[in-house]
């Protein structure tokens, strides 16, 4: 562009010199008593205008205009180039995912072939022990079993012929091979999956089949999301403020504006386990993982990023494809200070040891009757509080059986949703905030709970609350981006932290009460020094921040994003972990009080439990609607979630 501008200036300078030369010649030759020259007469006769002679300012203005035009074109092309680069990266990620799945399926195919051969040998050894008549019947039955037509095969897998590969994916596949995608040796002497399936076209054909299945799943996901949106439409209304829950989606206030899961599909296990808890063992071998992926419609497997057993890793395979050797797609990546991403090799004891759960069991369903945007559980683990539209309901979970609320606390306005509710550690005071400018402080020690104070700020809504460890101060994240600090004893506003340029959506405080972490819709996470009242750190992201949690043992901060990623940041070092099991925005996040694990929930209906900090998947639960909120009991024995299908769910953590 700079050479273009230089050429333009040179061309303008030459034109200006010619104009000035002609102007001087005309002044020398023209006089009042001299008739016009032949050239002037010819110009007048031909009607050529003489106003083309420009002054210096006019010439400079034209150059400036052309420069601005070229600059605008440059910025436009730059934005287009960045967009294409982003799309290219996404397509590359999809291609690697298809490759990993195809290899896992190839391993499963060879395993099943070997099983069939062994069963055939066993049958051949057993047949001589049968009577002559039975021997003939068995042999005929075995021959009939081997005669599988293409029609029967297609009917069994639900595919009518092999669908063509989309042109965009085919082009990406060819470009990847042209660039020399590194492919290492396969274990047990197995051929490359593409060759095993018929040369280069084998992988293309498999990718096409996977694409068709994923497209069908995507269509079903759209239909389910539309049905959920219609069922929840009565709760949806437009707010006159920007907030993370008041946008279109599958539940009224909190869809966060993201589409249903795309080509990655739903996580596997839903078909096998139903809508309850899905426990996928990270130690499952590659063939079992591939079978689980196939049974779930070729979705992305929620197993660990890399095999937790080092002796199972394939030597010589590039690090970027190590997870493919066991048929397990990578979902946890370490991001270095220079931005390099590498799959995480989980240690052998990633899911072992004291304080690490084995799974979780659903024990209670609390039918709130409205979308549950906020939940909390008491220190005694006896009571659960669920916040919905205009009220908080109190539940006694100490006894088994069906549940009905033992109390209802009417808060805010009737049509406004509760966004956050927090208990003080003594369990005698509850603070409630939501789509209103006031916070309600409830006295729970009386026979009938009552409001003992209200705190009013200038912001129209509160998105999240946090309580200091000494129970003396409350922090509220406001829709205007401010963090308001309240003195709970005097019910007064102490100070405001200003920095977020859009709504502050989530908050957590360190165990020593000296640092506060906040996330916002301005794509930033900020750390505040509570002693000095100033901002210490700022982390910028490319996505809005919907949830975060600070590890009770220090050092690590987990952040849930609109982009579906969970990022675990080291608070004093530049490295971090990036986790990719969610298929949609991450709506809530909470650390266990031991700090060894944490949970996240999302619009994809998932509750994920992760190992701190590298994100080995401990267990998953698939609920029937978006999971908007979560909490963990202080003894790490219970998990409570609130969802878009108007209920809360209580899980018991099994160690």
UniProtKB/TrEMBL annotation:
Gene Ontology molecular functions: transcription corepressor activity
Record CDD domains: WD40
Each WD repeat, start to end: 455-496, 497-538
SUPFAM superfamilies referenced in this protein's UniProt entry, alphabetically: WD40 repeat-like
Domain of life: Eukaryota
Domain Groucho/TLE N-terminal Q-rich: 52-173
UniProt entry tagged with the keyword Repeat: yes
Any one GO BP annotation for this protein: negative regulation of canonical Wnt signaling pathway
Compartments in which it is found: Nucleus
Matches recorded under PROSITE patterns: WD_REPEATS_1, WD_REPEATS_2, WD_REPEATS_REGION
Role of this protein: Transcriptional corepressor that binds to a number of transcription factors. Inhibits the transcriptional activation mediated by CTNNB1 and TCF family members in Wnt signaling. The effects of full-length TLE family members may be modulated by association with dominant-negative AES.
Protein name according to UniProt: Groucho/TLE N-terminal Q-rich domain-containing protein
Lineage: Eukaryota, Metazoa, Chordata, Craniata, Vertebrata
């Amino acid at each position: 562009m700079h050479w273009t501008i230089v050429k333009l200036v040179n061309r303008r300078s030459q034109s200006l010199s010619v104009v000035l030369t002609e102007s001087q010649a005309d002044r020398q030759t023209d006089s009042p008593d001299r008739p016009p020259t032949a050239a002037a007469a010819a110009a007048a006769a031909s009607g050529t205008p003489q106003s083309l002679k420009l002054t210096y300012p006019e010439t400079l203005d034209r150059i400036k205009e052309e420069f601005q035009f070229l600059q605008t074109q440059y910025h436009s092309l730059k934005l287009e180039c960045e967009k294409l680069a982003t799309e290219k990266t996404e397509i590359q990620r999809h291609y690697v995912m298809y490759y990993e799945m195809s290899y896992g399926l190839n391993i499963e195919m060879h395993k099943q072939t070997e099983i069939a051969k062994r069963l055939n040998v066993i049958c051949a050894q057993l047949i001589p022990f049968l009577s002559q008549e039975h021997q003939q019947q068995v042999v005929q039955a075995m021959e009939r079993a081997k005669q599988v037509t293409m029609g029967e095969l297609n009917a069994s897998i639900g595919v009518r012929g092999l669908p063509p590969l989309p042109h965009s994916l085919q082009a990406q596949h060819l470009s990847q091979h042209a660039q020399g995608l590194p492919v290492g040796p396969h274990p047990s002497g197995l051929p490359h999956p593409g060759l095993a399936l018929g040369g280069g076209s084998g992988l293309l054909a498999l990718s096409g089949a996977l694409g068709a299945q994923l497209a069908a799943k995507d269509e079903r996901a759209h239909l389910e999301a539309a049905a959920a949106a219609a069922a929840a439409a009565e709760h949806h209304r437009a707010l006159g403020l920007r907030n993370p829950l008041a946008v279109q989606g599958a539940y009224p206030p909190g869809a966060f504006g993201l589409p249903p899961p795309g080509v990655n599909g739903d996580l596997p296990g839903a078909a096998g386990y139903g809508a309850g808890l899905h426990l996928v063992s990270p130690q499952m071998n590659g063939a079992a993982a591939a079978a689980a992926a196939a049974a779930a419609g070729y979705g992305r497997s929620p197993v660990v990023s890399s095999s937790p057993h080092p002796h199972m890793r394939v030597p010589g395979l590039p690090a970027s494809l190590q997870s493919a050797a066991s048929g397990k797609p990578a979902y946890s990546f370490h991001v270095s200070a220079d931005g390099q991403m590498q799959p995480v090799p989980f240690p052998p004891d990633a899911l072992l040891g004291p304080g690490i759960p084995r799974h979780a069991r659903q024990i209670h369903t609390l039918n709130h009757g409205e979308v549950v945007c906020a939940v909390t559980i008491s220190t005694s683990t006896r009571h659960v509080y669920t916040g919905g539209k205009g009220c908080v309901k109190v539940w006694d979970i100490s006894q088994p059986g069906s549940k009905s609320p033992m109390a209802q606390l009417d808060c805010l306005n009737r049509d406004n949703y509760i966004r956050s509710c927090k208990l003080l550690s003594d369990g005698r005071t509850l603070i409630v905030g939501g789509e209103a400018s006031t916070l309600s402080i409830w006295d729970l020690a009386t026979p009938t709970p009552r409001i003992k104070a209200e705190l009013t700020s200038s912001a129209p809504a509160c998105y999240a609350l946090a309580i200091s460890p000494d129970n003396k101060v409350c922090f509220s994240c406001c829709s205007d981006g401010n963090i308001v600090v309240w003195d709970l004893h005097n019910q007064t506003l102490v100070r405001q932290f200003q920095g977020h340029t859009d709504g502050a959506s989530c908050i957590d405080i360190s165990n020593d009460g000296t640092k506060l972490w906040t996330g916002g819709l301005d794509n930033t996470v900020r750390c505040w020094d509570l002693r000095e009242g100033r901002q210490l750190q700022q982390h910028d992201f490319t996505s809005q921040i919907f949830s975060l949690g600070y590890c009770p043992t220090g050092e690590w901060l987990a952040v849930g994003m609109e982009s579906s990623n969970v990022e675990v940041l080291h608070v004093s070092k530049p490295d971090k972990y990036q986790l990719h099991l969610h298929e949609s925005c991450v709506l809530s996040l909470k650390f266990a009080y031991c700090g060894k694990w944490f949970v996240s929930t999302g619009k994809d209906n998932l509750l994920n439990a992760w190992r701190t900090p590298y994100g080995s998947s401990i267990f998953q639960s698939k609920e029937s609607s978006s999971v908007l909120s979560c909490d963990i009991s202080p003894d790490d024995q219970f998990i409570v979630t609130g969802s878009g299908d108007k209920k809360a769910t209580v899980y018991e953590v099994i160690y």
